Amino acid sequence: MAENQNENVELIEEEIITLYDDNDNPVDFNEVAVVEYQGDFYALLQPVEPMEGLGEDEAIIFKVVQKDDETDEFEPVTDESVLDAVFNEYLKAEAEFDDECDCGCGCDDCHGGECDCGDEGCDCEGCHKHE
Question: 114-129, pLDDT tens digit by residue?
Fold first, then answer.
């Protein structure tokens, strides 16, 4: 289910996708995000099990190609400029999500549990207006 969604990026909370390697062996991935870039969709996937040549905090970017109403194909992206652009969109969305207020007041002024939003309904712990 979506944890956060902005215009071009949907951050995914808990979604497992199974792909198959060249020997038809199943490989499970955590879907981290889906990014729309230049009209195409890209999935950032992290392997569930450690994968040789890939760090624990690294992801693989796949282009998502819809084959029919129920089937998507995942094609590895090799173009460095596309990889960089898609990853930068993801980083930007993640930074926006990290800056959002956890109290639900809708502001982006909460920092470390302290809020300067001025919203009287804000119940953010440590909110300056409650001092």
Answer: 565 656 656 565 554 4
